[in-house]
Design brief:
The complex is a heterodimer of chains A (about 450) and B (about 400).
Chain A lengths: L4 H4 L61 E2 L20 H26 L13 H8 L7 E3 L5 H7 L3 H8 L33 H18 L8 E6 L6 H12 L4 E7 L2 E2 L2 E2 L10 H6 L3 E6 L3 H16 L6 E6 L18 H10 L2 H11 L5 H24 L18 H16 L17
Parallel strand pairs in A: 1-7, 2-3, 3-4, 4-8, 7-8
Antiparallel strand pairs in A: 5-6
Helix pairs in contact in A: 2-3, 2-4, 2-11, 2-12, 3-4, 3-9, 5-12, 6-7
Chain B lengths: L4 H8 L38 H5 L7 E5 H15 L3 E5 L14 H5 L4 E3 L4 H13 L3 E5 L10 H8 L2 H5 L10 E6 L14 H5 L5 E3 L4 H14 L4 E6 L2 H4 L1 E5 L11 E4 L4 E5 L3 H15 L5 E5 L2 E3 L3 H11 L2 E8 L4 H12 L9 E5 L9 H4 L3 H13 L1
Parallel strand pairs in B: 2-3, 2-4, 4-5, 5-7, 6-7, 10-11, 10-13, 13-14
Antiparallel strand pairs in B: 1-8, 6-12, 9-11
The chains are: A alpha/beta (about 450), B alpha/beta (about 400).
């Protein structure tokens, strides 16, 4: 939206604000102007105080800069790249739990994608190729940290302790779903895990994370005894084109909010390749423009993800707080969702090539096998166990009743309005008058649940 | 060619009947469309003794004469003092705001709690939603209601639906209040005059409120900030910021966010309005009661535009049998449409005449046309006449 400066200075009804004297008590000097010394090489323009004059007219060209490098720890064969770094500071059982969490998401994805194809749930989105970003970042957070996700972060939920029963209850929208059957599948949420319920509109959660981080900052200032917390926000490179991304990073920087932004750059927004999404150096190059410390990382390397997130969390809490941007590079191996056939816009060979070349699960498995802590038997055992567990919860959740019908009307406001109460009575009357037209049998307590 | 000084002086001489910047010049022969006299209007408390009836405070509650912006400022100060979770932000609020509503508050409560944001409406509301989700009570200011649209997605898809989609997690943004100056101001043209309330009254999950006076504004705003657990869109008629002055209790008090207010009881016709047009309605009713001897007209302030007090309106119309709805924003799908439809459904057998709507026309706020566009005393008077004669 374009707003002229004049428009912003609209006069109130009676008298121009410009003529309103500021109260002496509340006057603050917002900037200082210093007259330029003769021969000075710069003047302190309030908009760019450190800029020096130059007589050479040269436009800044993005192509003159080399692309921001991608941080990695372990290569695609599971070998530590920098031999001088020594061993990784991780416990074997921790690594195994990350691995199992990634595999769980992967197996759940396979089963649920198929279930949607059979018409047993309305919709699904897999995380194939991005399990490492989710689990690798989540394992570096504390349970108190507040998470805002986009929709392809099932691994974050799994790593934070979301149970298979909770996943399945949400996917089947049954009476155990905290979302009370209101949201599409994969819109998970959990209060006890400090992870907000996902909403479909893209990028809206990015300014939420900035505001939540500001709240956490104020609460920590008030009460220094509580553990310090950050907000973490996930989004894709497509969502970063939304205005909310711009608004959020700018406001997070100006208000010094302890928030870590994690961009999953997987190369596609549905069918749109990054070449049609942006022409700069990805998302990372933008962070610098907002005055935000930024890093690009190999999203298929769970160790790099973990290290970077851990350090970002530390930096975000330094000196009263500041935002950090992480761009995690990966490839969306799967279709965008169950409503998408990605071979309509990309070559099958490209996808197969990525699958073969590199993925976060295979890479971690190689690293574990190199260390002698994993083998084919353990792999088979783990996968079979997880698969059984997923299918068990799947069957239980599918059999479970739907929530009570009244949940259609509750939680719009804190208290149900008179209008809603009247409308609830009206739908009840309709169902009772035309029982043949409405099947309420799958809802808990049937018509009584309204 | 340069003007001579005399030509220039003649050229710049103010026309007698003009206020230099206003398009609201009354017709020299006007009987009805006279400027609203806020010093004598019965809608404002010109003495401290009439406060108790409308605020529920004791008769001897200390009060102070304040205009609307000062009453808003008083409410914000009261809220910031009462609850450390209250934070106040938006464009230019730190120095006191372009309408002076936040004057001195940063000095008093510090820059952590009262601060400027970058110039981004979607950012302001998105940021507020996040803070509210984490238990704060953010009071976000949109500089003009005309500029709320970049934040429309955040208000409609996020704030309004937050509690519903969180469901059993109990996550909500009930602490959120979004303030915005609205309405015509004589010379605001397209982007400093709008009243977008009906765009929000179509959204379950949002409360939409508009006060008519300083004392109402303070009580309703305090209720929105400190007591209400639903997100509130709080619209302030900017023309009243300086024009409306009345006695406002100095202490803290709240007014209900879901109740209409019967300003003037009557038996023959119900006039329903909200915000600044109530003053127009009041003047038109006075003229009509003088012109049509024995007629007694009820005036009701909706106050809460959504969810709204259907019971009070239906009881009134069931008694009078006639209704007129008046608002400044345009006719099509405005608040009046909802009120009129509800009346014909809920008081059909009692109606003696069609429900009339006196509203802005379905056009934009062209700079020089404002006085022909917003409901004026003559139009409300005429609607009263037609409805009584039907």
């Amino acid at each position: 939206m374009f707003i002229s400066f004049v428009g912003r200075c609209a006069r109130p009804a009676a008298r121009s604000t410009l003529r309103t004297s500021r109260s002496a008590r509340g006057s603050i000097r917002w900037g200082t102007s210093i007259s330029q010394q003769p021969g000075s090489d710069h003047v302190r323009f309030p908009g760019a105080v450190d800029s020096k004059f130059t007589t050479e007219m040269s436009f800044v060209t993005p192509s003159a800069n080399t692309a921001i490098p991608t941080y990695r720890v372990v290569d695609s064969d599971g070998i530590i790249v920098d031999k001088t770094r020594g061993a990784l500071d991780v416990k074997d059982e921790e690594v195994i739990s990350w691995y199992k969490n990634m595999v769980t998401v992967n197996i759940m994805d396979t089963i649920m994608f198929e279930a949607q194809r059979q018409g047993r749930l309305s919709f699904y989105m897999v995380s194939a190729g991005e399990e490492g970003i989710a689990v690798g970042s989540a394992c570096a957070l504390t349970p108190d940290d507040v998470v805002f996700a986009q929709y392809r972060e099932a691994g974050v939920f799994k790593q934070r302790g979301y149970t298979l029963k909770e996943f399945m209850s949400q996917l089947f929208a049954n009476r155990n779903d905290t979302g009370r059957g209101r949201n599409m599948p994969v819109h998970y949420g959990s209060k006890k895990l400090n992870t907000y319920t996902i909403s479909s509109p893209l990028a809206t959660q990015i300014p939420h994370a900035a505001g939540a981080a500001y709240a956490l900052k104020l609460q920590a200032l008030r009460n220094p005894n509580i553990p310090q917390r950050i907000a973490v926000c996930y989004f894709g490179e497509g969502a970063a084109s939304e205005g909310d991304f711009h608004a959020a990073l700018n406001i997070a920087a100006t208000r010094s909010c302890p928030v870590v932004f994690i961009c999953r750059n997987n190369g596609y927004a549905i069918s749109t390749p990054t070449l049609e999404q942006y022409r700069g150096d990805g998302i990372a190059s933008r962070g610098v423009g907002y005055g935000i410390d930024t890093i690009r990382v190999d999203g298929n390397d769970i160790f790099a993800m973990r290290q970077v997130t851990k350090e970002a969390r530390r930096m975000a809490l330094e000196d009263g707080g500041r935002p950090i941007l992480i761009e995690a590079m990966s490839y969306r191996v799967s279709h965008h969702s169950t409503s998408d056939d990605s071979f309509a816009y990309r070559a099958r060979v490209e996808v197969e090539d990525w699958k073969r070349r590199d993925n976060p699960i295979a890479r971690l498995r190689k690293w574990m096998e190199n260390r002698g802590m994993w083998n084919d038997d353990l792999e088979r055992e783990a996968r079979e166990g997880i698969r059984k567990e997923v299918l068990k919860e799947f069957a239980a959740a599918e059999r479970e009743k739907k929530p009570r019908l009244k949940e259609m009307f509750t939680d719009v406001y804190e208290e149900m309005t008179e209008e809603s109460k009247g409308q609830r009575e009206e739908i009840k009357r309709m169902i009772e008058t035309y029982p043949a037209e409405y099947d309420v049998s799958e809802f808990e307590d049937g018509i009584k649940g309204l | 060619m340069a003007c001579s000084r005399n030509t220039l002086r003649r050229f710049l001489r103010p026309l007698q009947q003009y206020r230099s910047y206003s398009s609201a010049a009354p017709s020299p022969s006007a009987q009805l469309n006279l400027p609203i006299d806020y010093k004598t209007t019965p809608l404002l408390h010109h003495s401290s003794s009439s406060i108790l009836a409308s605020t529920g405070l004791p008769n001897n509650a200390p009060s102070k004469r304040l205009n609307l912006y000062q009453a808003i400022n008083s409410a914000l100060r009261t809220a910031l003092s009462a609850d450390e979770d209250v934070i106040l932000f938006g464009e230019d609020v730190a120095f006191g705001g372009v309408f002076r509503c936040s004057v001195d508050l940063q000095t008093e409560f510090g820059s952590e709690r009262v601060f400027n944001t970058p110039l981004t409406e979607q950012g302001i509301v998105g940021f507020a939603i996040g803070a509210a989700a984490e238990g704060m009570k953010p009071v976000a200011e949109i500089q003009f209601a005309d500029y709320v649209y970049p934040a429309f997605d955040q208000l409609v898809n996020e704030a309004a639906k937050f509690r519903y989609r969180e469901g059993g997690t109990d996550g909500n943004v009930g602490g959120l209040v979004v303030r915005m100056p609205c309405g015509g101001v004589g010379h605001g043209a397209l982007y400093h005059s709008q009243s977008p309330e009906s765009l929000f009254t179509h959204i379950p999950g949002l409360r939409v409120v508009m006060p008519r006076s300083p004392a109402q504004a303070k009580g309703l705003l305090l209720s929105a900030i400190l007591e209400c657990n639903d997100p509130v869109v709080f619209m302030e008629p900017k023309i009243l910021y300086r024009a409306a002055v009345e006695h406002v209790p100095t202490e803290s008090y709240t007014l209900p966010l879901d109740k209409a207010d019967i300003i003037k009881p009557g038996s023959d016709l119900t006039v329903i309005s909200y915000g600044q047009p109530l003053y127009v309605c009041s003047a038109a009713i006075a003229a009509a009661e003088k012109a049509f001897k024995g007629v007694n007209i009820e005036l009701i302030d909706l106050r809460a535009l959504y969810p709204w007090d259907r019971k009070t309106i239906l009881e009134s119309v069931s008694k009078t049998g006639r209704a007129i709805v008046v608002h400044e924003s345009m006719l099509n799908a405005g608040v009046g449409a909802e009120v009129a439809a509800t009346i014909q459904e809920g008081a059909f057998l009692r109606l003696e005449a069609p429900v009339k709507r006196v509203t802005g026309w379905s056009t934009h706020s062209g700079l020089i046309y404002e006085r022909f566009n917003v409901p004026d005393v003559a139009r409300v008077f005429d609607a009263i006449k037609q409805t009584l004669d039907y």
